[in-house]
Amino acid sequence: MNLKTESINKNFSSFAKLLHWGFVILFLYGLLKQIDSINQLEDDNLLMFEVIFALAFLLLLIIRFVYMKTTQQSSIPDHTPKSQKLAAKIVHYGMYICLALIPFSGLIIGWLFWLDLKDGFLINLVIGIHEFAVSITYWLIGFHIVAATYHRLKKDGVWSSMVPFWKE
Ligand code: HEM
Ligand code: HEM
Predict the structure, then answer these.
(1) Can you tell me the distance from the alpha carbon of 70 to that of 113, in angstroms, rounded to the nearest whole number?
(2) Class of residue 112 by CB neighbours under 10 A (exposed 0-12, middle 13-18, buried 19+)
(3) Which atom of ligand 1 is nearest to the CA of 23?
(4) How far is the CA of 40 from the centre of ligand 1 (A)?
(5) How far is the CA of 24 from the centre of ligand 2 (A)?
(6) Is the pTM of this model over 0.85?
(7) Which of 6, 70, 119, 143 has the most CB atoms less than 10 A away?
(8) What residue's CA is closest to ligand 2, atom 26?
(9) Residue located nearest, by CA, to atom 13 of ligand 2
């Protein structure tokens, strides 16, 4: 196998793809069921559901991160400019950080609410952080999809290593 085919033949494992696409569905579900007003947390069942969902989301995210970092490698070809490799790293780590910050800040909101600190500077600050993390996540996912499409057009194997449709 020569160097060129070696660098475009990388593929993610089935489990890595399951984690990646499973998270896309889980995140979309999280957006669909989002809370529109803090008063909704007065419903004990909803508060409990939010907390369980956030804990499960965080646990799965940690499992995904550890699995990806210890067993998988980016498919970005070796000859890609350093600046592009760095940009990909920043976006990937950025997504992990924001995806962790959303449930983490959500759990603090739930905790403050449960402590009866339902109004005031502290809870509003944490809600602000929660909403900021959601906004940054949208931006990062946007960049990520544009970058993936750019690699698909370049036909360098990055797209097909993760995406099951419109294969090269
Ligand atoms: C909720 C939406 C998404 C999130 C949070 C996300 C996150 C990530 C992350 C963190 C990685 C790095 C590998 C890992 O640690 O799993 C990755 C890889 C990748 N994603 Fe996504 N992704 C999303 C949606 C998409 C979509 C819609 C596409 C394409 C249409 C896509 C295409 C890719 C490709 C091609 C890779 C491989 C990049 C490489 O080899 O370095 N992703 N994604
Ligand atoms: C993975 C877990 C979670 C996801 C994906 C998520 C997602 C969201 C989204 C998309 C928004 C709207 C942001 C915006 O409009 O800019 C939101 C707002 C909010 N979330 Fe979460 N959330 C999660 C966990 C939690 C938890 C555990 C709690 C509390 C128990 C919580 C409480 C709130 C509150 C109070 C708001 C603001 C509602 C308002 O506009 O007054 N979230 N969340």
Answers:
(1) 38
(2) buried
(3) 1
(4) 33
(5) 17
(6) yes
(7) 143
(8) 106
(9) 131
98 within ligand 1 shell (Cβ under 6 A): no
The residue type found at 9 is N
Give the relative orientation of helices 121-154 and 82-114 as an angle to the nearest 10 degrees.
150
The model's pLDDT over 10-46, given as tens digits with 9 standing for 90+, comes to 689 999 999 999 999 999 999 999 999 999 999 999 9
Angle at CA 151, nearest 5°, toward 145 and 155? 140
Could you give the CA distance from residue 90 to residue 113 in angstroms, rounded to a whole number?
Answer: 34
Alpha carbons 27 and 69: distance in angstroms, whole number: 21
Q: Is the dihedral of CA 83, 85, 86, 91 positive or negative?
A: positive
Tokens (6 digits) for 123: 């809870």
* Residue 129 burial by Cβ neighbours in a 10 Å radius (0-12, 13-18, 19+): middle
> Is the CB of 24 inside a 6 Å radius of any atom of ligand 1?
yes
Using an 8 Å Cβ cutoff, are 88 and 147 in contact?
yes
